[in-house]
Design brief:
This protein is of the alpha/beta class and 334 residues long. It contains 9 helices and 16 strands. The relative contact order is 0.17. The chain binds NADP nicotinamide-adenine-dinucleotide phosphate (NAP).
């Protein structure tokens, strides 16, 4: 089969297509024939040696949608040919509040979805929401799940929330906007260019601020929120997270799942004086994944940035590296 392989570290340009042996389903596994795969920043970090536990050579890719191709001897279903999506969180067992095995994610060290076939545990394979196209179904795995847990499970969003979303064009943050609007909450977002600001408004952002054009974006956001956001979802980290804590309304929830811009020096005063709930989150549980899929049966549509042919995986990853995307960057595999 054809697979996008990484044989050495040094950047996205090292991703290339190779012929490798197709996987056979082991005990408890299903082999999925991939139609579409989606990139995450994680894939780029791996090519740059900025991720723990890298093993090479490997096929990258956490997100994929396709059809069931083969079942392990002890696996009862779903039947061959069923359209499915993959939950890339391999370590989180049903019923666990937090995973006992953290960071076990499809695509490293297990070979991933940037290939014609991938073998995954049967319990990570779910029926594809019928309402979604292949492109849309491939988008939701890692990013949709992370956003779901951030917004609903950890953030406990309600329609009365004023939600602040920093860097809204990111693969995960576009889902945060989608979910917040679905609930009916008011949204204030930031992004890094005029074009992205227009895109965010078209997707329903109530207030959109260009953080490059408005260096005091946090003050603008606080003013627009009428006393500070009640729910903040951030993955930028660094000075952005510090400012998020400063503008949060007393009693607000501040959810963080990443640190794209590095570490933050935060002021404890902002947390304790305002009784903030600062909540960490990573990926999501099997229960989160199932609840997210139900949402996508009800008409929500993931935001797709661009779909590249498999042979252009390096260009696709370069686009993510440079932060040019709005939503998910994908690979057409089939
Ligand atoms: N813990 C987890 O489970 C988990 C899961 C997924 C992702 N993550 C982490 O979350 C982060 C985002 O992941 P992703 O896949 O969504 O990446 P992505 O699509 O590459 O998005 C990058 C994000 O960084 C934002 N950004 C860059 N510079 C910024 C700045 N100066 N101020 C505000 N925002 C800025 C971008 O906003 P604009 O383009 O709008 O400017 C965009 O939201 C990464 O650090 C990733 O490792 C963690």
């Amino acid at each position: 089969m054809k697979a996008v392989r990484l044989n050495e570290l040094g950047g996205p340009h090292l991703l290339h297509v190779e012929d490798v042996a197709a996987p056979q389903p082991g005990a408890g596994e299903i082999v999925v024939r991939i139609e579409r795969a989606a990139l995450n920043r994680r894939d780029v970090y791996i090519t740059q040696n900025l991720y723990p536990g890298i093993v090479l050579p490997r096929t990258l890719g956490s997100d994929g949608a396709g059809t069931v191709a083969a079942l392990g001897d002890d696996v009862a279903g779903p039947p061959v040919g069923t359209p499915v999506v993959i939950d890339p969180d391999l370590g989180w067992q049903p019923g666990e509040r937090v995973p006992a095995v953290s960071g076990s994610i499809l695509g490293m060290p297990a070979n991933g979805t940037f290939a014609e076939y991938v073998a995954v545990p049967a319990r990570n394979v779910y029926s594809k929401p019928a309402a979604l196209s292949w492109d849309e179904a491939a988008a939701i795995g890692l990013a949709g799940l992370t956003a779901y847990r951030a917004v609903f499970t950890r953030g406990r969003i309600t329609k009365d929330d004023v939600v602040f979303i920093s860097g809204v064009a990111g693969g995960v943050q576009t889902f945060v906007l989608l979910y917040a609007k679905h609930v009916g909450a008011r949204t204030i977002v930031t992004s890094g260019s005029a074009a992205k600001i227009e895109r965010a408004k078209a997707l329903g952002a109530d207030v959109a601020i260009d953080y490059n054009a408005d260096v005091e974006w946090h003050k603008t956001a606080r003013k627009a929120s009428g006393g500070g956001p009640t729910l903040i979802v951030d993955a930028t980290g660094g000075e952005t997270l510090a400012r998020c804590l400063d503008i949060a309304r007393p009693g607000a929830r501040v959810v963080t799942y990443g640190g794209t811009r590095g570490d933050a020096t935060i002021r404890p005063f902002a947390i304790f004086w305002k009784h903030l709930d600062v909540l960490g989150t990573s990926m999501g549980s099997p229960e989160d994944f199932a609840a997210m899929l139900a949402l996508f049966e009800s008409g929500l549509r993931p935001v797709i940035d661009r779909v590249y042919p498999m042979a252009q995986a390096a260009e696709a990853a370069q686009r993510v590296l440079e932060g040019k995307q709005f939503g998910k960057v994908e690979l057409a595999i089939a």
